């Protein structure tokens, strides 16, 4: 048992550090080729922050543990809003100035509803996976087009914040080294993480869905937590919200599609009737909290407290239902 716990913690730790190397290398390579920081931030960085979830979901699906894969995708979205954004807002109120983010939020909500409609029948088929993959391509196209429009009209605050964070002094050789090291590390650490998580689930007699929704989801959300807290401390709050919105959209489109494409089949009924509706509720809260029609949009400390309390309550609900209470 101690070996499994050590494997889980080691896998999570390396997953966080390798994801950072992967994003740093990929974004630096893109910048060296003349791609604008806003496009890099919305696409390369957005996909990169979901790389841990993608690798874990891919490995779990290959091994037949689809509950871990689907639980990780949905659980990470809940953790991103409840834990990451809630904690970040407690540290400092999160101001939302970017018009691009305000256009992206309704799209995230639409993606969430579409994803739920695909699995509401209790099955994640290969066709469902292809629909999600097609939606991912369409979403990426929209992001690139919106970034180009924002650049031609006026500088979006989000683009300025991305420009400060994306490495500009890495040569292609160093950037490729970081990218390759991060990718290899992600593959190895995700394999270790899945192995340990499945073993722990067996020992405690719980489903791999529960492990995916809780321990693994929180662990794979750690890069977003670190990035969001750092962003608000640097007064780059649009970046904090942008990380969450982008990560959640990619988790549904690029992560949830993997079990459908690799190992299509039935979806745990608890995911359909408990976890996905709760994820939709958190997404609606984010949507409501991020708009203010008579002033500056802001996720205040009070709103952060609400998100955090709801997240803790959700974990309590999962725990109690796992015990059969």
What does this structure look like?
The protein has 325 residues and is mainly α. 82% of the residues lie in helices and 2% in strands. The chain has a single domain (2-323), classed as Up-down Bundle (A middle domain of Talin 1), CATH 1.20.1420. The strands form 2 sheets. A two-stranded antiparallel sheet has the order 1-4. Strands 2-3 form a two-stranded antiparallel sheet. Helix 10 packs antiparallel against helix 11. The radius of gyration is 19 Å and the shape is globular. The two termini are 25 Å apart. The model has no long low-confidence stretch (mean pLDDT 85).
Proportion in helices: over 70%
User: What structural class should be given to the helix and strand makeup?
Assistant: mainly alpha
First-to-last CA distance: 25 Å
Helix and strand pattern? HHHHEHEHHHHHHHEHEH
Rounded mean pLDDT is 85
Computed over alpha carbons, the radius of gyration is: 19 Å
Strand content: under 5%
How would you summarize the topology of this molecule?
Elements: H1 2-32, H2 37-49, H3 51-62, H4 66-91, E1 94-95, H5 99-119, E2 123-124, H6 126-153, H7 157-165, H8 172-204, H9 208-220, H10 222-233, H11 237-255, H12 257-262, E3 265-266, H13 269-289, E4 298-299, H14 301-323
Antiparallel strand pairs: 1-4, 2-3
Helix pairs in contact: 1-2, 1-8, 2-6, 2-7, 2-11, 3-4, 3-8, 4-9, 4-10, 4-11, 4-13, 4-14, 5-6, 5-11, 5-13, 6-11, 8-9, 10-11
């Amino acid at each position: 048992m101690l070996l499994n716990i050590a494997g889980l913690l080691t896998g999570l730790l390396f997953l966080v550090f390798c994801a950072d190397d992967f994003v740093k290398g990929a974004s630096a390579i893109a910048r060296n080729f003349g791609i604008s920081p806003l496009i890099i931030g919305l696409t390369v960085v957005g996909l990169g922050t979901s790389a841990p979830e993608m690798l874990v979901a891919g490995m779990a699906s290959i091994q037949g543990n689809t509950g871990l894969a689907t639980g990780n995708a949905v659980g990470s979205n809940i953790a991103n809003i409840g834990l990451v954004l809630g904690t970040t807002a407690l540290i400092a109120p999160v101001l939302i100035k970017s018009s691009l983010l305000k256009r992206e939020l309704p799209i995230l909500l639409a993606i969430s509803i579409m994803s739920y409609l695909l699995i509401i029948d209790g099955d994640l088929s290969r066709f469902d996976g292809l629909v999600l993959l097609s939606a991912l391509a369409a979403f990426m196209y929209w992001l690139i087009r919106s970034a180009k429009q924002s650049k031609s009209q006026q500088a979006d605050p989000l683009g300025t914040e991305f420009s400060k964070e994306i490495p500009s002094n890495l040569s292609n050789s160093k950037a490729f080294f970081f990218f390759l090291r991060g990718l290899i590390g992600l593959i190895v650490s995700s394999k270790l993480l899945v192995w340990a998580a499945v073993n722990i689930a067996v020992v405690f007699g719980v489903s791999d869905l529960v492990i995916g929704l809780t321990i693994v989801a929180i662990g794979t959300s750690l890069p977003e937590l670190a990035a969001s807290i750092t962003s608000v401390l640097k007064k780059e709050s649009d970046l904090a919200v942008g990380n969450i919105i982008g990560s959640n959209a990619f988790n549904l489109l690029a992560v949830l599609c993997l079990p459908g494409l690799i190992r299509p089949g039935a979806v745990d009924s608890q995911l359909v009737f408990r976890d996905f509706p709760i994820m939709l509720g958190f997404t609606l809260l984010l949507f409501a909290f991020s708009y203010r029609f008579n002033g500056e949009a802001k996720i205040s400390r009070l709103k952060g407290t609400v998100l955090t309390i709801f997240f803790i309550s959700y974990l309590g609900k999962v725990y109690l239902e796992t015990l059969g209470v």
